[in-house]
Design a protein that fits this description.
CATH architecture: Roll
Number of domains: 1
Low-confidence stretches: none
Radius of gyration: 13 Å
Helix content: 10-25%
CATH class: Mainly Beta
CATH topology: SH3 type barrels
Structural class: alpha+beta
Length: about 110
């Protein structure tokens, strides 16, 4: 039987392992929101994501999320990750309004 590979795309909320890290970077197995498009993710074997934390601190680059996953998307901790090697699992799609806020903050960081 052929294995069907999940195709992760922009706006997907996933679980994956962020370790190894250094310093103040988010680490461990945690949720994240994918910000790269599906075509890039499939062709490169990488995806670009922002980790989600359950500890909301009110930082300017946090976007709150309240769905199956509750917490804050850390837009300023963008990471490029090999999703095949990090045991990535799909959870749900982020609401469009949440992704609009994420995109706005990314544009502030990377004009």
């Amino acid at each position: 039987m052929q294995r069907v590979e999940k195709k992760f795309g922009r706006g997907d909320i996933i679980w994956l392992d962020f370790t190894p890290t250094k310093g103040h970077e988010q680490s461990g197995r945690r949720p994240a929101v994918v910000i790269s498009p599906e075509e890039y993710n499939q062709k490169s074997g990488l995806l670009i994501a922002c980790p989600i934390t359950s500890k909301i601190k009110g930082y300017p680059f946090e976007v709150r999320i309240d769905s199956k996953i509750k917490g804050a998307i850390l837009v300023d901790q963008i990471r490029s990750l090999d999703w095949r090697e990090r045991n990535t699992k799909y959870t749900e799609a982020a609401p469009a309004a949440t992704m609009a806020k994420v995109k706005r903050l990314i544009n502030l960081l990377l004009p």
